[in-house]
Amino acid sequence: MDDAATPPIDHARPRLWVETLWLLDSLTTKEPLREIPLRRGLNLVVSPPGKGSAGHGVGKTAFCQLLRFVLDDPLWSDGSTLRDELLHSRELKEGAVAARVHVGGEVWTILKPWLHQKQYRASRTADWRQLAANEVENEFSAYQAALRQHLVEILPVQKLPGSEQPIEWHQILAWCSRDQNARYQNYYQWRSDGVRFSLPAKSPAALMQIVLGLMHDAATLQELDGTAKTLEEQKANLQDLREEPARLLKHVRRQLTRRLNASATTPFRQDGLLELPNLIGLAKQRQGAYQQELRDIEAERQELTATRQTWLETRAPLKSSMDLLTNEIQQIEALIAGDMQRVTELQNEAASLQQQLPTRCDAGNLLRRDCSYVINRIEQTQLDRSQRITGHQRSKQALENDMLPLRRRLQELKAEVAPMDLQLADIDQKSTALSTRQAQSLSAVQLLDDALEDYEHYDGIATGKSSSADIVSVERQLESAQRRHDQLQIQLDKERAALKGRHQVISSAMHAVAKALPSFHWGVLSDDDKSRSRPFQMGPMHSTTFKVLEILAGDIACLLDSSKAQSYHPGFLLHDSPREAEMSESMLWALLGHVASAGNDSFQYIVTTSTEPVEAFRPHVRLRLSADSDGGFLLRHRVGVGQMPLT
Fold first, then answer.
1. Out of 114, 262, 571, 646, which could bridge 266 as a Cys pair, Cβ 3.0 to 4.6 Å?
2. Which element (helix H / strand E) includes 539?
3. 604 contacts: CB under 8 Å, gap ≥ 6
4. DSSP character for 434?
5. What angle do CA 564, 565, 567 make, to 5 degrees?
């Protein structure tokens, strides 16, 4: 993009200037407290030292604040010391400021009481008296729109790169009318309370470049800023990923040290030929011990299983006999009770056993039809069945006598089986304990296996023997982002190179300002990274006012350049008491002399000072203030407890 790509803009010069400022003690007054005529070119508001006064505290800063107020600076409405003092003044609390303002070749009259925001008024046809009397249509919203249209909407970029914050008029006004109490500490410090930039570290510089016509398209810068953020994030992410194995190795060390009950100073591996304790060696020894324990547990389990099986096979015939005796006893009891249905159910036990013949018995793991004690039981039950059916008529005493030998035999069998049950219960208890030991050993060996595996993995990454998939992925992303960032930087450099002519024009304006000052030989507009806080530079440095002079000279260079078609600068500049920052009189008049020699129609430069102008500058004086009498104050009254602050 080159300078020719920017079409010349047909606009009046300057885009903004104030013709008259009126100060009113009320909206009903017929005559203003003060009428201050201003012109294009250089305008001086002075308060030379008087009797017992150094020229301070008379209203110079108040004049600047009220001028900014009529130019729609929102910081006034948010609250200021001056506004608070005016609202507490018995004589001035109902007062207002009015002005005749030229915006884009159109003339506006504005009236703004400092008390009621709803009474802000503006008109393109009426004077301040008609506005005060509310006799004409209020066009204040149209006035605000005109400021945006002629001073903001003309800009080639409407949003600040990096933050995407829309550019607003009050931000440009802050640059063109610095706070006196910001003390010119930094070129981009325009208001002591800030200018509401969402990205204050970068936005002021970007705004200045846009207004000066040094940035026609913010897309590349915007993307470059985005890739820079991405690079920083990916670098931080990569650093975390690279540091993570070391952190995890410490965690593995703590785990192994605790599980192996080892000293915290025990190394991971053996270093050298000497056999010294190390965590890896101890862990492998412990692994071997656990593996041997698991083998022992398994052998013991198999032995217990075989013993249990032997006891089950020994007990099975006895249990079968016990079941048969129990069945016989229950049949006799049912006969005695006359419960024939129960007798039938008990006698049908043989049929149920026959149905289970294809299944396996628990004792020998054989088919029931192959178990002799099952077959014998079925045959005996069937043999006795017919006898039992006809025997239910027998006497109760005879039946009870039949049960006595059966019960004795049952008790004998139970006594024979009881030790076997105890042996089986003991075996089951030992099996449960073995299962618990096995689970504990398996868990311990698994934890050791995991810790050793983690150690090998993290140690490989930490020592560079292997790479993490996440690290490889982020490294690739970082390389891609770096390539894109480099491409964008080259593209941005090309775009800036295309505007080299525009940059040189402004730099030449700065050089001319510097050459006009005593002892300075050069001036330049610098846009390299080393000069982010000092875009305008002069040399050689030779006094304590050097920084202030650079800032003032930079503002003036931009003001004088505003007549160029490629500039979007308003052509308006307000400096409050610049010499009071330790500047010599000769330096001040040399600086103002350069401005005065540039012509009077293409800009408006307003300066307040407590220095008596030399003869050549007296035609530029628009207002004289003095502390010798109340009439010499800006508002013809002392405001506040003492003299007006910030003046």
1. 262
2. strand 536-539
3. 14, 16, 17, 18, 38, 39, 40, 41, 43, 571, 572, 573
4. H
5. 70
Q: How far apart are CA 377 and CA 437, in angstroms?
A: 43
What are the strands, taking DSSP E only, across 599-642? Answer: 604-609, 621-624
How far CA 146 is from CA of 125, 139, 140, 141, 507, in Å, comes to: 15, 10, 10, 9, 31
Q: How confident is the model at residue 647 (pLDDT cuts 50, 70, 90)?
A: very low
Residue 199, amino acid: L
Structure tokens at 280: 């890896």
CA-nearest of 149, 194, 193, 195 to 172 is 195
The whole-angstrom separation of Cα 364 and Cα 361 is 6
pLDDT in tens, 436-485: 988 988 888 888 888 777 777 777 776 766 667 877 888 888 889 898 88
DSSP 8-state code for residue 41 = E
Helices 469-498 and 500-515 pack at an angle, to 10 degrees, of 60
CA 129 to chain centre: 53
CB neighbours of residue 539 within 10 Å: 14
Cβ distance 535 to 509 under 8 Å? no
Q: Which residues pair with 209 in a beta bridge?
A: none
**Residue with token string 């009046």:** 12
Q: How many residues does the chain have?
A: 647
**Crossing angle (nearest 10°) for helices 340-347 and 372-390:** 150
> SS3 for 350?
helix
Helices (H), 272-395: 279-337, 340-347, 349-355, 372-390
- 107 phi/psi in degrees, rounded to 5: -105, 130
Is 141 exposed, middle or buried, given 0-12, 13-18 or 19+ CB atoms closer than 10 A? exposed
Nearest to 640 by CA among 76, 62, 67, 52: 62
Helix (H/G/I), strand (E/B), else coil: 156: coil
Taking the C-alpha atoms of 314, 317, 318 and 321 in order, what is their torsion angle to the nearest 10 degrees?
180
Name the β-bridge partners of 44: 607, 621
- pLDDT digits over 525-556, tens only? 987 766 778 899 998 876 555 788 899 999 99
CA-CA distance, 580 to 576, in Å (whole number)?
A: 9
d(CA 155, CA 112): 28
Tell me if 420 sits within 8 A of 311, measured CB to CB: yes
**Beta-bridge partner residues of 536:** 525
What global pTM score does this model have? Answer: 0.65
Q: How confident is the model at residue 262 (pLDDT cuts 50, 70, 90)?
A: confident
